[in-house]
Design goal:
Elements (H helix, E strand, L loop, with lengths): L2 H4 L2 H12 L4 E4 L1 H7 L8 E4 L3 H8 L4 E4 L5 E6 L2 E7 L1 E2 L3 H5 L14 E2 L2 H6 L9 E3 L5 E3 L4 H7 L1 E2 L5 H7 L2 H13 L2 E2 L1 H10 L8 H12 L4 H10 L3 H4 L1 H6 L3 H18 L7 H16 L15 H13 L6 H19 L12 H15 L4 H5 L34
Parallel strand pairs: 2-5, 10-11
Antiparallel strand pairs: 1-2, 1-8, 3-4, 4-5, 6-7, 8-9
Bound molecules: adenosine-5'-triphosphate (ATP) and magnesium ion (MG).
Length: about 425
């Protein structure tokens, strides 16, 4: 099917509106890359010559919000989804950067100067991620950096000098290796050398941004190959120390096997995308050992203080990611339900536990890997609809509107 016909109609409408208002506008980044590789994009980023205020004028205040203080973006609502519309930008000049107190001359913290389409293409990270698509006019794919050929050849290549580009923003190391793990790209030799040299600088990046990246990786359905790429290029130690330390141990072996099974289930659409469940899945082998199980695949004693030890084990495994108290509590609850489920022929009260659904799902997943008796599972009733929403310890939070990148399934928390 031609690319144009595979784009979500609502995205074409949105771009049509901007173009009708006189603003050059395109789909950009991962969506164009995915379409060229025959994959359905999970989100669409939109780049435009319009300023955020002009975007708001085009859609009206009810459909558009401007977000961000320095890096200002427009969020446009279409149905229940939000699309990110960003104005073409350029890399700041040395002079502009020297005016900023927080700029050390190396790391780029924000690039918020508006620019042309050409500027916008060259400030992006890799050639494969810097393509534009025009679904309204007749320009089709716009390739200013040689990205089409690199996608055809599955080569990850930095735009500009890779050493400089990865130094400017160490998260690009992670993004380059995602191309390797997620889509089977190879690294251009210059980029490979830069990844090996600059990987440890990831410690300078914001840990909450890195944790968000981990959650995204666990939802790709290619988590194991992405983490394997991190490990193969010496990046995992700096990014996720406990996982790197265990990579070749029995704990790491079981973790890789459960992640592989999870990837398979995600690809088959047979796995909830709950973030708490994703983290609990990865943490189970580590926690099993920390809680004193005699063997991997067997459970720990439910002794006094087990909640506390489990929470600590979860925190240690994910350090230095800032896993929130709520997430840690949910991961702990999912894990601690497992031996209780395994020990009860009649599950009784456990069915009403808010995490029952996820504990049951995790039991099924790990059971498939560890050859646990499947009859057990069939004795437990299916969950009663969705788990009850939990309150945040710090009080009630407003539920944010879903970004178009979030999946259509409603169990992503
Ligand atoms: P996906 O959304 O499938 O994970 P993506 O490449 O679209 O992949 P996004 O985080 O949605 O990732 O970013 C959109 C685009 O913004 C990228 O394709 C790239 O062009 C640009 N971009 C994102 N992060 C960076 C960065 N750290 N440095 C330079 N450009 C970036
Ligand atoms: Mg994207």
């Amino acid at each position: 099917m031609p690319i144009r016909d595979r784009i979500r109609p609502v995205v074409c409408d949105l771009l049509g509106r901007l173009v009708d208002c006189g603003h050059e506008s395109y789909i950009v980044g991962g969506a164009v890359r995915d379409l060229l590789m025959g994959i359905e994009p999970k989100d669409y980023d939109i780049a435009t010559a319009a300023t955020p205020e002009e975007v708001r004028r085009a859609f009206g205040r009810r459909r558009c919000r401007i977000i961000g203080r320095r890096f200002r973006l427009a969020h446009v609502y279409a149905g229940s989804e939000i699309y990110e519309v960003s104005t073409f930008r350029r890399t700041p000049t040395a002079d502009e950067r020297s005016e900023r107190l927080d700029d050390d001359g190396i790391m780029i913290w924000r690039d918020n100067e508006f620019g042309t389409l050409e500027d916008d293409a060259t400030r992006r990270d890799f050639t494969a991620n810097a393509l534009y698509y025009d679904p309204v006019g007749d320009r089709g794919v716009i390739d200013l950096v040689g990205g089409v050929k690199d996608i055809e050849e599955r080569v990850a290549r930095a735009i500009g000098d890779p050493m400089v580009r990865l130094e400017e923003d160490p998260v690009r190391v992670l993004r380059g290796l995602k191309l390797v793990g997620q889509f089977g790209f190879s690294l251009d030799p210059g980029l490979e050398a830069a990844i090996r040299a600059k990987g440890p600088r990831i410690a300078l990046a914001s840990q909450s941004r890195l944790f968000e990246e981990l959650l995204k990786i666990l939802a790709t359905g290619r988590a194991l190959p992405v983490l394997a790429a991190f490990q193969n290029y010496g990046f995992l130690t700096a990014y996720w120390p406990a996982m790197a330390q265990e990579w070749d141990t029995p704990v790491g072996d079981m973790t890789r096997r459960v992640l592989e099974e999870r990837d398979r289930r995600i690809a088959a659409g047979a796995c909830s995308l709950s973030k708490a469940l994703a983290l609990a899945t990865a943490a189970l082998p580590w926690v099993t050992v920390r809680l004193g199980s005699p063997r991997l695949g067997e459970f720990w004693e439910h002794t006094e203080g087990v909640e506390h030890h489990c929470r600590e084990a979860v925190q240690e495994f994910f350090a230095p990611f800032p896993v929130s108290r709520l997430f840690t509590a949910r991961i702990r609850d999912i894990l601690l339900l497992l031996p209780r489920l395994a020990g009860h022929l009649r599950v009784g009260r456990l069915v009403r536990h808010p995490e029952y659904k996820y504990a049951r799902e995790l039991y099924a997943l790990v059971g498939a890997v560890m050859d646990w008796p499947p009859e057990r599972l069939s004795q437990w009733p299916p969950p009663e609809g969705e788990p009850a929403p939990r309150r945040h310890p710090a009080g009630r939070r407003r539920r944010p509107r879903r970004r178009a990148s979030d999946t259509a399934r409603n169990d992503t928390t």
